[in-house]
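STRUCTURE:
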């Protein structure tokens, strides 16, 4: 139980900090990278089932951190990346990671995208090993050490 309480506290703190960061990066490139990250988390186990897709899409639309963007635009981008991952996981993953990697020259924006992934991954109370691996791969694409996020 203590581990769950620590995770909840960490996610709450991260959520507040990430919302402040996200408000600085109100651009299409950041929105695309965030939705690519969300799709990677949703598909972290190699597939996206309909309920997982619906839960992630609902979370994106209602999450305070991403409220600086139009929900319909975020949903559209998430669905686009999720569809790519669903039709061909390996190619979809490459595309999502490449989109995230476009923020490599903007480390603050990259860290905010990583935080979005961690928040999405921990939203159900279980930031599992597959989700952690997806975030690690995103960190590597950004040139950010995963250890910076305790991964």
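SEQUENCE:
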């Amino acid at each position: 139980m203590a581990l769950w309480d620590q995770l909840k506290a960490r996610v709450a703190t991260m959520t507040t900090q990430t919302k402040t960061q996200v408000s600085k990066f109100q651009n299409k490139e950041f929105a695309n990278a965030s939705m690519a990250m969300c799709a990677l988390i949703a598909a972290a186990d190699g597939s996206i089932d309909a309920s997982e897709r619906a839960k992630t899409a609902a979370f994106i639309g209602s999450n305070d951190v991403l409220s600086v963007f139009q929900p319909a635009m975020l949903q559209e981008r998430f669905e686009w990346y999720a569809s790519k991952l669903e039709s061909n996981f390996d190619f979809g993953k490459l595309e999502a990671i490449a989109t995230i990697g476009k923020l490599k020259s903007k480390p603050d924006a990259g860290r905010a995208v990583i935080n979005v992934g961690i928040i999405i991954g921990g939203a159900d109370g279980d930031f599992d090993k597959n989700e952690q691996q997806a975030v690690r791969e995103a960190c590597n694409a950004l040139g950010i050490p995963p250890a910076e996020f305790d991964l």
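REMARK: Residues 14 and 115 are 7 Å apart (CA to CA).
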